[in-house]
Design a protein that fits this description.
The complex is a heterodimer of chains A (about 220) and B (about 250). Chain A is about 65% helix and about 0% strand. By secondary structure, chain A is mainly α. Chain B is globular. The relative contact order of chain B is 0.11. The chains are: A mainly alpha (about 220), B alpha+beta (about 250). Chain A: This is Na(+)-translocating NADH-quinone reductase subunit D.
Chain lengths: ~220, ~250
């Protein structure tokens, strides 16, 4: 017997491809542009968002019948901000090096519109288990795009992956640099992240024409 | 109770603030000891890194002395900690805990800051390590600079709070920090510091007598911040440096 029903597994799998929060819903673009110059930062951000969104959806789902509708957005903001502070403090105490890598990005999690979007669109109207799966699924879909964008930006922009030089040494002209290859510094700037995300949207839609809007 | 009722809304908001506030306050107080210890170890690791006591394995790695031995290594290599306050220089075994940002803020009010110096000894050589604090593009940058008695840089360590990953954040990469080693903060008898310069035609930084290192591509403002931070530090410590050089 499968652990998850077909309906439940769709909550995890759909956001990875055909209902991806970045490439289909076009949410969370700002943080995707800001932090994907390095693959490591993309991975760290993806893992942090999985934690915050999974747990945040559970908390909002648990409270869904008692939250006053007039201040629901404020409540959602407080929940996500509190979770982000918890993550930050625990990392500072028990994984200090990782917390330093995260420093820039923790604040960005609070402003991530996917998180608020899922609280509002799903967790406020569904049970705990399904909300948790929805949170994990959407965060994973977001993280997947971040990692793909981070991979290409770091590889083509710095010639490295996770900090390791994979294309040779640009100063001593070894590896690919020996045959005239140059790092594309433009890849490290935010506009190029937008172009890479655009290319991903293009590739995804040309592989699956059903995703193309009629009008 | 009706969830749209104003009284219910106010009560809910109050309860939420109390619950969330209590959880965060408890967490902050429970973890503050551990966090402060981590920050202390980090400072010791950074100071030791600047004077060449580190675990770097290859050309690209930035590896500190392990946390479990850093306190012991710090007492082994750092022989003296000094605090400069105006003309007065005193010894203080906890000088490394001085918050340089707060001390530099005192300058704005016309007060005299307490400036720490760490004197290190490694393989018979004496190092004078000074902390630095400045502004990058987005937020604070800081670091440590180890000098010998001739005012030649023996090593630096830079760090930042929120510089752009892949661009300004690269000030803490080996290839940038290593460029400073061998440069002098003196030009003749003038304390000029070291400038981060774009396109100085010396990308591997072979020229060590120009008070210049090659800039990071796409990080002009962070690079200027590093230049300004070194220049400010050199100005602040000038009298002390001069006393070492001429002793």
């Amino acid at each position: 017997m499968a652990i998850l029903s077909k309906k439940d597994s769709k909550l995890i799998l759909d956001p990875l491809a055909d209902n991806n929060p970045i490439t289909i819903q076009v949410l969370g673009i700002c943080s995707a542009l800001a932090i994907t110059a390095e693959l490591k930062a993309s991975i760290v951000m993806a893992l942090s968002v999985v934690f915050v969104m999974g747990l945040g959806n559970v908390v909002i789902s648990l409270l869904r019948n008692v939250i006053p509708s007039k201040i629901r957005i404020i409540v959602q903001l407080v929940v996500v901000a509190a979770l982000v502070i918890v993550v930050d403090q625990v990392l500072k105490a028990y994984a200090y090096t990782l917390s330093k890598t995260l420093a820039v990005f923790v604040g960005l999690i609070i402003t991530n519109c996917i998180i608020m979007g899922r609280f509002e669109a799903f967790a406020l109207g569904n049970g705990v288990k399904r909300s948790f799966l929805d949170g994990i699924g959407n965060a994973a879909g977001y993280g997947l795009i971040l990692i793909i964008v981070g991979f290409f930006r770091e590889l083509l922009g710095s010639g490295t992956l996770l900090g390791y030089a994979v294309l040779g040494n640009p100063i001593e002209k070894t590896g690919l640099y020996a045959i005239g290859y140059e790092n594309n510094g433009f890849m490290l700037l935010s506009p190029m992240a937008l172009i890479v995300v655009g290319l991903l949207i293009w590739v995804q839609r040309s592989r699956n024409p059903a995703l193309i809007e009629e009008n | 109770m009706n969830r749209d009722n104003n009284i219910y809304t106010v009560l809910f908001a109050c309860a939420m603030v109390i619950v969330v506030g209590s959880i965060l306050a408890y967490l902050a107080s429970a973890l503050s000891g551990k966090i402060k210890e981590n920050e202390r170890f980090e400072k010791q690791q950074n100071i030791l890194y600047a004077m060449g006591v580190n675990e770097n394995e290859d050309e690209g790695s930035v590896n500190f002395v392990p946390t479990d031995v850093v306190e012991q290594e710090f007492t082994t290599y750092i022989t003296k900690q000094l605090v400069i306050e105006g003309d007065k220089i005193t010894e203080n075994d906890e000088a490394y805990l001085i918050d340089l940002k707060k001390e530099l803020d005192k300058l704005k009010n016309g007060a005299t800051p307490k400036l720490p110096v760490y004197v290190g000894d490694k393989d018979g050589e004496t190092f004078y390590i000074v902390p630095m604090y400045g502004k990058g593009l987005w937020d604070a940058i800081w670091g440590f600079m180890a000098l010998d008695k001739n005012m030649i840089v023996q090593g630096v360590y830079f760090d930042h709070k929120a510089e752009t990953p892949g661009l300004g954040a690269n000030i803490k990469q080996r290839y940038f920090m290593d460029d400073f080693t061998g440069e002098s903060i003196l030009n003749g008898d003038n304390y000029t510091g070291i400038k981060v310069i774009k396109g100085n035609n010396d990308p591997v930084n072979n020229i060590k007598d120009d008070n210049e290192v090659d800039a990071l591509a796409g990080a002009t403002i962070t690079g200027n911040g590093v230049s300004a931070m070194i220049s400010k530090t050199v100005t602040l410590y000038k009298d002390y440096f001069e006393s070492i050089r001429t002793q």
